[in-house]
Structures are given as structure tokens and as C-alpha cells.
Amino acid sequence: METITSRTNPLCTHLRKLASSGSYRRERREFLCDSPKLLEEALAYGSRLQTVVCTEQAALPFVPAGVRLVAVPGDVMKSISPAQTPQGVLCVCKMPESALPERLTGRRYVVLDGVQDPGNVGTILRTADAFGADGVFLVNGCADLYNPKTVRATMGAIFRCPAWSCGLEEVLELLAGIPLYGAALRSDTTDVRTVDYSRCALAVGSEGRGLSQALLAACTKTLLIPMQPHCESLNAAVAAAVLLWEAARETI
């Protein structure tokens, strides 16, 4: 294991840029994970691990040969970690193949429409993984899938549940023949407890704007989550969790 003590070391600069710049992440095809949990998940699910950085006190799992191992003092870790309270371990992973599948063979998918909060996007990916969704599509300016806040919120689902950032038209073409249900109010809105989820895609929009008109127009039907009359809506991640639970309820 090598040791780095300078905050200006090229590796430290690289890590800070991975944490702060989406364009840099895409250019390098790498992303940053900032906890021991994420390192363990990356190792367990075969991510292409590039570098592990830790403080001297951190306990590391077995790391395969060929992965760069670096020890840093606490002040350097604070300077490179995107977390306010660093957990003593960072790792760099290669992004997986980002090309869309030629066709969809799974049972259920999620389409996120303009969900801009990284925590919500990450939580939805984690929930989709928990309830057996076959993939998540991010359209219309969603938060960066590889933002450290998004990655942290996935709690490792980033390594297990396929996800793609893409254009709406591409998604709609892929979804041809698959019922698309949107979380929104329309004349044909149906109670979420009465829908056939045997094969479908579930669309969730941002809290502020909801689903875009283009995506809403493509929906087979819209779904209503019953709630108290004085409540107008749910957090996007909570709404997605309700839909995904309903969709998986009979198969889990």
C-alpha cells in the first residue's frame, strides 16, 4: 500500500474532480464511492474497481491484486471525501456499459422524469432493486446517476440494478407494447391497488412539476395513491416505493 500525505497530489485532485464534476466523470468513465459499505458492495457484485483510498485506522476487506491501494491521513481524507463526515474509505469504480438494451425482456421497469434530487434518484434505485425491478431509466434532466450523493443513497444498488440516462424518445421506443403507468391525475386515473402489474413500466416525475406532458401523453393509464384529502402529493422516492411495492406484492 502506498501512502499520500499531500492534498495536492494528482490522485487527490482526480478524486475531488470525480466528486464534483459530472462531465469529468463521463470523460473518465469513473465514479467515486465514499463508504466501506459501498466498497464491500463493489467487491461483492463485480464492479471494475480501480483505486481504494483509506485512512490508517480503516479496516479493509480483501482487495484483489491490480487495484491501487492508498493510505492517507485524516486531513487529506477530509479534503477528498464528498461526505461532510468521511467514513475513512473511498473507492473509484469504472462505469458499466451505458448502451441501452436492444429490447426489454424483464417484467417491470421504472422511468424517472426530471427527478433532480440525487438522494431521491438513489433511493428509488435502491427501492427498485429491493422490489425486483429490471431496470431504471432517467430522462429529462434527472440527477446524475453517478453523483456521489446518488451513489451513496443507492446503498449498493448501483452495482445490482441496471440504470440508464437517456432520451425520452429512446425509452418510449423500447417500451413499445409494455403498459406504461404514470403517477399522476388524469380522467382515467386508477387506484394503485387495482392495476395489473404483471408486466409494466412505472413513471414517476419530480415533486414540483410531476410528469412532463410528453411522458404523460405516452402513459397507458395514470395511477392514484390514496391518501388523506389535505395531502396533495408524496415525495418522489416515497411515491415510487408505493408503486413498486404494489407491483411486487404478489411475487415477493
UniProtKB/TrEMBL annotation:
Residues 32-99 form the RNA 2-O ribose methyltransferase substrate binding domain. The keyword Transferase applies. InterPro entries: Alpha/beta_knot_MTases, MRM3-like_sub_bind, Ribosomal_eL30-like_sf, rRNA_Methyltransferase, SpoU_MeTrfase, SpoU_subst-bd, tRNA_m1G_MTases_N. Pfam families: MRM3-like_sub_bind (PF22435), SpoU_methylase (PF00588). The keyword Methyltransferase applies. GO terms for cellular component: cytoplasm. PANTHER family: RRNA METHYLTRANSFERASE 3, RRNA METHYLTRANSFERASE 3, MITOCHONDRIAL. Belongs to the class IV-like SAM-binding methyltransferase superfamily. RNA methyltransferase TrmH family. This is 23S rRNA methyltransferase. The gene is spoU.
